[in-house]
Amino acid sequence: MIPTVTKARIITLTSVGGGDLLPGLSMLLNELPRKSKVLVVEYPCMGIPRISYNTFDNKEAFERLHKQQSIDQLLLDFNRKELKPLHDYMVEYKGVDYLLINPRSMPDSPVTMKIKSNKTMMHLPVYLRQQLQEKYDFIIYVASGTMLHTMTFSSIKYADAAVFFNNTSVDFINTYTGYKRFSEVFGAAEERLFLFSGEGKFERKEKNFFKKASDLIKEISKLPPLEIPMQAAVLLVEEDIEESGEIPGIIDPMEYLEYSFTDSLQDDLITEDDQKNLQKLKQQVQRMLSESHLDHYVAAVNSSESEQKVMYLIADIIRDLTTYSFKMPREQVISWVQQEILKLGPVQPLVDDESVSSFEINGPEEVIVCRNGLNEHDTSIKFASVEDYIQIINKILEPIGKSFTGNTPIIDANRNGIRVNVIADTTTRDGVSARYPLVAVRKFPKDIFSDEEVVSYGNMNWEMIKVLRALTYAGVNITVAGSTDSGKTTTLSRLPLYMPKITRIMSIEDTEELRYAFKQAYRDYPNLPSLLTKEMDDPSKSIGMDKLIKAALRQRPDILVLGEVRDKLAGSQALIGMNTGHTTWSSVHAESMQETAVRWLQLNDSTEAAAAQVGRAIHIILFQERLDNGKCVVTEFGELLGFTKDSTPIINPYFVYDYEKRIHQRVGNITSDTILRKFKRKGIKIEEINTVLQGVTA
After folding, report:
1. Stretch 278-298: mean pLDDT
2. Which member of 83, 297, 420, 597 has the greatest number of CB atoms within 10 A?
């Protein structure tokens, strides 16, 4: 009779030589007491998915296996400290729970290569023991690696019983050698080590040699649970491992003889019960925010101050609630809920990183980051699953009242200084993206770059700055042009610096990017209203840029700022505004100064009359590019004097960029009658421009 135990027996089945363990596993499972609750864990020591291919003889059951339900995904999430409930990684088959190697993983690229530290792989067998030993009667670790493989070594060392299995006499030498070395060299107690042979005729004199699985199970069941030593500090921490030159997944076992686990191993990771309660608590807090603090909750999307307010509200709500109990500290609970509600999971570090200007997500493991102006595939940023990826998308959209559905396959949104474009996929949302949902995130500087920063960066030189200051102060119409992500918005956002603080500067955009009123540099500017276009299901009720320009002209603006002029309706209305005396700053997509003038002409039907109007309305063009070193630079800066009879722009450049020398060069002077007249009106003498600029600055 096998005695009843309150905790699972942890049995590691190994050959430490790469032999076939499946016959041994089958024999053990067949001899376990009926109605035993059993978990089988297949560690990816060598990355070969054997159990799923040999045990799941039912095609339908096999096809249910996927990456998210695997030991591979659990190991990645354990390493990131982003674990889901452990049962989410398991599959059940014929009454047994399995944690299996992803059957579609490749042995030449095992998951262990993606883990930075052996510490993670040493700890996982112990963590699973701690979390699951009260939920099962037997937990069988299957470790097919050698003693050099981290998880093979750890699962043997920290099991109640280690069963060294050989199915043939050929396997016996390696198996027996491993059995003896664990006792004589690695200090494992002999009573916890067992030899088990699948060949009935094979005989050994060792006390712990078994041919029958039933006898082996009875002997193992007599053992008391293994006590795993804990202490305040880990003797070999992650940094030590990395400096020692070890390869993750491979160790020198001699260096781990005295390895101890910290008392905080459980504290560092969230228990399964706590995870369930955290999810319930998060949902309750979200409901309470929506019911009682909706204004702040919605405003937190676009306001750092409101976000901080909601952080405090979440903390207060949780401290007052007594519905749920947690093993983790209360402050850790508060921090977790704050992050879940207000932050963006795996991509939050990219949002916080000031060196990152944009990033695109093509799928759970494909995140392309523009860092310091250069694109890179950031393999450290991954989502646990497609579901987690979609959850982050919904987190972005929910507070602003938008939903991620196939009914609206393309969604634009703003969230606290970032612009987000989401394209739904054909698989989960009946959208238009073939594989996964697509997300593009553009970040905008939290504040305005000073003149000194612009010159130091290389965007412009001091002479260009002085000319631009005079032109802006004089009230000329300025267009900033360039390709996507060339820095147009950043340059446009700096122009109010050169105007009196009381100037009424009204911005009009499709999505809020300029955000003048939120910039620290403009905290003393009280007159910076902004308008946003609004799309409706009924196009006739939509409010586009053309309608907003018409409305804005009735608001007595000193300056109109058009964030991005894209269509003819907006282009023609903007031209009307400029030709009626309203100073206008704008941005358009174009490939050069010349093409910028042509683009404005195209937006107004390219007629002879339009050429005359554009020639009078557009005074200054700044053309920007992102260079091969990642820097955004004004490469052309000058005036538009008009068009020839065949509609060719007449351009007078003041400055051009020398790509070889990487410097700006002065190539022309201000000649436009319109600009000179505006200078005269402001009392600016062209020959004394540098002297006068000192007065403008003051």
Report:
1. 87
2. 597
